[in-house]
Design brief:
Layout: H1 14-29, E1 42-47, H2 53-64, E2 68-73, H3 74-77, H4 85-92, E3 98-102, H5 106-115, E4 120-124, H6 130-144, E5 151-155, H7 160-172, E6 175-179, H8 188-201, E7 205-208, H9 211-215, E8 220-223, H10 235-242, H11 249-252, E9 260-263, H12 275-278, H13 285-303
Parallel strand pairs: 1-2, 1-3, 3-4, 5-6, 5-8, 6-7, 8-9
Helix pairs in contact: 1-6, 1-13, 2-13, 4-5, 6-7, 6-13, 7-8
């Protein structure tokens, strides 16, 4: 994986993704072994969307590997306006050994990768959140002891997080069911890709409008905010549409007795999830958050020269 971009889960094989999760777990258990792994390396962090977990995990992660981060906000570089994506990439690849970008359009990270000679890591786009998926399935493996055959129910907006869970699920052999209101389901080509790839790993991908159907018997129940960054004007309408998709005690009771509750955070308590679920013994949301650090370290170590 050395020297490759990390833009979407689809770009990596089953074996590569298993190695990545294995490496993240190794780094979590034995951080001292990798304390100088990226000594002196510089990572540029570009944020067009605000962040807590992405910012801290990459910044702390590169330092724990012996490197350092340079953070660039939209106000500082005004990507594509003050300076073109081409010129930003051509500058950064002469001064750093890697670029992480958290932005809106997926085409922006694709262009950054096209023009940059150093690896580009997708910290989030409106289409894909691959770093989150690695941390999520690492967390499932820690708690369930396996990935193949796990049944994951995603309830809510068929967004970037859902897409990456679907992609990774197909690679890992996980059965993913998505429950979304009509018009908010994952794109047909995302689902079709997962079903094609799933034929090789034994996974399935089902999309339904019925949250009870999705959650019934699930090993993992996952949800995300109903209104993502950039959709604030739609918030009231989204609350109305998604209200039947709230993960509460009644819905969660449909899952298996030892089911995990997962959320990529930030959570809007009382909207997509109730307090009694996110604060319950079933909830592993803060394990997920911590594992962003270890997953990010594994990704940086694997791709940065």
């Amino acid at each position: 994986m050395r020297g490759r971009d990390f833009l979407t889960i689809r770009d990596f094989t089953h074996e590569e993704l298993c190695q990545l999760v294995g490496l993240a777990r190794e780094m979590k258990g034995h951080p001292e072994k990798y304390a100088r792994a990226l000594k002196g390396r510089a990572l540029a962090l570009i944020f067009e969307k605000p962040s807590l977990r992405t910012r801290v995990s990459f910044d702390v992660g590169i330092q724990q590997l012996g490197g350092f981060a340079v953070t660039l906000t939209q106000a500082e570089i005004n990507l594509g306006k003050r300076e073109s994506i081409h010129d930003v990439a051509m500058n950064l690849d002469r001064m750093t050994q890697g670029i992480m970008i958290r932005t809106f359009g997926h085409d922006i990270v694709e262009q950054m990768a096209e023009y940059s000679r150093v690896p580009v890591i997708n910290g989030l786009t409106d289409f894909s959140h691959p770093c989150q998926a690695i941390a999520d399935y690492m967390t499932v493996l820690e708690h369930k002891g396996r990935l193949g055959g796990i049944r994951l129910a995603y309830v809510g907006d068929g967004n970037n997080v859902a897409n990456s869970l679907i992609f990774a699920g197909a690679r890992y052999g996980i059965h993913v069911t998505v429950a979304s209101p009509r018009g908010f389901e994952p794109a047909a080509d995302v689902v079709e890709w997962a079903r094609t790839q799933g034929a090789r790993t034994g996974s399935t991908c089902i999309v339904t409008e019925d949250p009870v159907e999705a959650v019934r018997g699930a090993d993992v129940v996952y949800t995300d905010t109903w209104t993502s960054m950039g959709q604030e004007a739609e918030a009231d309408e989204r609350r109305r549409v998604f209200r039947p998709y709230q993960v509460n005690s009644a819905l969660f009771a449909e899952a298996s007795a030892d089911a995990l509750f997962m959320h990529c955070l930030p959570a809007h308590r009382g909207e997509e999830v109730t307090d009694d679920i996110i604060d319950s013994p079933h909830s592993v949301v803060f394990d997920q958050a911590e594992n962003r650090l270890h997953a990010q370290k594994a990704i940086m170590f694997s791709v940065m020269p």
